Automatic annotation (TrEMBL):
CDD domains tied to this protein: ALDH_DhaS (cd07114)
TM spans (from-to): none
Domain Aldehyde dehydrogenase: 16-472
Species whose genome carries this gene: Serratia marcescens
Protein name: Aldehyde dehydrogenase
Similarity comment: family membership: Belongs to the aldehyde dehydrogenase family.
GO molecular function annotations of the record: oxidoreductase activity
Domain of life where this protein originates: Bacteria
């Protein structure tokens, strides 16, 4: 068994207990992980608070903070093969995907490194002749960054990068389902030379570790990625301390294919949208909305592609589709699909047991065109299940696309430019991909509407979420202040 410790106040820490992490490809424990209980969370937040108050961090220039992030990016690249190996072992995500993702995570750190000394304040053209007034951008304080198990190095980077650029300190909480990659990443934070307590990494269970962190009186901002139900607990917890929150939650993203679409590209993009990462992606294009006139042709192309997907052990370089992360998810997804079929949806392909140890569930397509209220159309499954609906015209496509409590992303496939613009404007989602899907960049803001959360990650605006402003008034007149009862 490999073992992983917490990282608190610049030291590797055994925590108050340990638990086993399970390899989803075998269903067996493979690592022993230190667990943060209430007292450990408290030590981590206290360390972040001390570091935030301390002179070393306070006096470090923005440029120097940027250099720390650059060093972290270099270390991440050097250790990418090991981190990808750990992520694949712990989450079951295929090695191709973890390798590719870690390569661009470094670019997020570099982007925020460059931004550190460009987060400027402003001087106001104030309406008073004897005043000089300016606005300083200041770090918001101690950040609790809570991430889910999927894409955790990436989801941590989009919080750590802007928070450090802004001058905050952090306690990062890795998901208990697959904590190893983030705890291993803490070794790089240590090597990069961050001052003690600036970036702490812990893990533990929701009821104790998560709840104590969320409601901690010394936490100023909570940056959360995960499910919508968890987010509601977090917002309730944050009310204790009136900490600000930014929430990146789930989705039920529509993938809209019009009758003039390039069907080869659309089919490949749809397969990527729902079956990459075995469907365990917040932006999974899990609702196919296809023009009625091309439904049969398009579904035939999709099923042909699905049949050719190579399902296998996630650590093999030629595997295209691996297991789900947990047994609980495997059982939940199978149960939702079974209930949807009982409700009248029709199975196109998939939903059959895979004869292998581990938490496998096959790529599955369910035709819900006669049953648009089936459970699998409404709920985020966070797995490889595509629900298919049809539309007759543009208006119906928009209505179906917006008929969701979520609003994270959407894909639109059409050759008609004016229609692409019209539909884009009408969709209540934070990201639209036109004739493509799943493209990301450090420059591009990312986030949702409705139950998909609020706040944005990526881009310049994300860094501003980790700052607050201070307005400073300087009276420039040397004349004495006379009448105390006149407003200045
Ligand atoms: P989850 O919500 O169960 O857990 C996420 C994190 O929150 C974990 O670290 C967990 O320990 C912690 N947590 C759980 N309950 C808590 C509580 N009461 N207080 C404090 N912390 C608590 O999510 P998951 O199953 O790990 O991940 C899947 C979800 O994440 C999906 O809904 C997916 O769409 C979403 N997600 C969103 C994005 C995005 O950027 N929008 C990206 C990836 C995943």
């Amino acid at each position: 068994m490999e073992s992983f410790k917490l990282y608190i106040d610049g030291r590797f820490d055994a925590g108050s207990a340990t638990f086993d992490s399970i390899n989803p490809a075998s269903g067996e424990p493979w690592a022993q992980v230190a667990e943060a209980r209430a007292q450990d969370v408290d030590r981590a937040v206290a360390a972040a608070h001390r570091a935030f108050q301390g002179a070393e961090w306070r006096d470090m220039t923005a440029g120097a903070r940027g250099k720390l992030l650059l060093r972290l990016a270099d270390l991440l690249e050097q250790h990418a093969p090991e981190l990808a190996r750990l992520e694949t072992l712990d989450t079951g995500k295929i090695i191709r995907e973890t390798q590719a993702q870690i390569a661009y995570v470094a670019e997020y750190y570099r982007y925020y490194a460059g931004l550190a000394d460009k987060m400027e304040g402003s001087v106001l053209a104030i309406d008073k002749a004897d005043m000089e007034t300016w606005v300083r951008r200041e770090p918001i304080g101690v950040v609790a960054a809570i991430v889910p198990w999927n894409s955790q190095l990436f989801l941590a980077a989009v919080k750590i990068g802007p928070a450090i650029a802004a001058g905050c300190t952090l306690v990062v909480k890795a998901a208990e389902t697959a904590p190893a990659p983030l705890l291993a990443f803490a070794r790089l934070i240590d090597e990069a030379g961050f001052p003690r307590g600036v970036c702490n990494v812990i893990t533990g269970f929701a009821a104790e570790c998560g709840a104590v962190l969320t409601a901690h009186p010394q936490v100023d901002h909570i940056a959360f990625t995960g499910g919508a139900e968890t987010a509601k607990h977090i917002v309730r917890g944050s009310a204790e301390n009136l900490a600000s929150t930014s929430l990146e939650l789930g989705g039920k993203s529509p993938f809209i294919v019009f009758d003039d679409a390039d069907l080869t590209s659309a089919a490949n993009a749809q397969v990527a949208a729902i079956f990459a990462a075995s469907g365990q992606s917040c932006v999974a294009g899990s609702r196919l909305l296809v023009a009625e006139s091309i439904k049969d042709t398009f579904l035939a192309r999709l099923t042909e592609k699905v049949r050719s997907i190579r399902i296998g052990p996630p650590d093999r370089p030629d595997t295209q589709f691996g297991p789900l992360c947990t047994r609980q998810q495997q059982e939940r997804i199978a149960a939702i699909v079974s209930r949807s079929l009982e409700q009248g949806a029709k199975l196109v392909i998939g939903h059959a047991a895979i004869d292998s140890p581990g938490f496998y569930y096959p790529p599955t397509i369910v035709d819900c065109s006669a049953q648009p209220d089936a459970e699998c159309v409404k709920q985020e499954l966070f797995g490889p299940v595509l629900s298919v609906l049809t539309f007759r015209d543009e208006a119906e496509a928009i209505q179906l696309a917006n008929d969701s409590a979520y609003g994270l992303a959407a894909g639109i496939f059409t050759q008609n430019l004016t229609r692409a613009h019209r539909v884009t404007r009408r969709l209540r989602v934070g990201v639209v991909w036109l004739n493509t899907y799943r493209a990301v960049s450090p420059l591009a803001p990312f986030g949702g509407y409705g139950q998909s959360g609020f706040g944005r990650e990526g881009g310049i605006d994300a860094a501003l979420e980790y700052t607050t402003s201070k307005t400073v008034w300087l009276r420039t007149s040397d004349d004495p202040i006379d009448d105390p009862f006149v407003m200045r």
